[in-house]
Amino acid sequence: MKYMLIMRATDEALASFENVDFTEMLDVMGRFNDEMISAGVLVAAEGLEDAAESVVVDYSSTPPLVTDGPYGEVKELFNGFWILDVASKEEAVEWASRAPGGGPGVKTEIRRVASIDEFPQDNVWIQKERAWREATGQL
């Protein structure tokens, strides 16, 4: 089963990282990622750039409204994620509990990633996606 570990932090927590040596942070994160690679559970991992550079597409109108910046009133921002292929939610929680960079105002949300096998296999779009995944080595 795949799980997405979504790193979330408050503005205050993000500000506390401004004084952390970037090379040291990369070393700590790199060692953690290497542990997950060695364990065979890491599928993907990415950090996200500053939320102030983001764009929001709001679908509550036609055409959708596009605005700059993060959500209007947000108390926590996503700043990166890992996708793990593990045996259970408990194992995903175990890996998340070991992640570096924690502290006050930092949280990790764990969400199961739906498998293509869970969708109707007779749907033409699912069949096309399955073919694409097979052709690109994702299945």
Helix content: 25-40%
Total strands: 6
The outline comes out as globular
Q: Main β-sheet: number of strands, strand sense, barrel status?
A: 4 strands, antiparallel
Low-confidence stretches: none
- Total of helices: 4
Structural class computed from helices and strand pairing? alpha+beta
- Biggest sheet strand order reads 2-5-1-6
Mean pLDDT: 89
- Terminal CA distance reads 13 Å
Q: Radius of gyration, Cα only, in angstroms?
A: 18 Å
Q: Name the beta content range.
A: 25-35%
The H-and-E topology, N to C, reads as: EHHEEEEHEH
Organism: Cellulomonas chengniuliangii
Domain YCII-related: 1-107
Protein name: YciI family protein
Pfam families: YCII
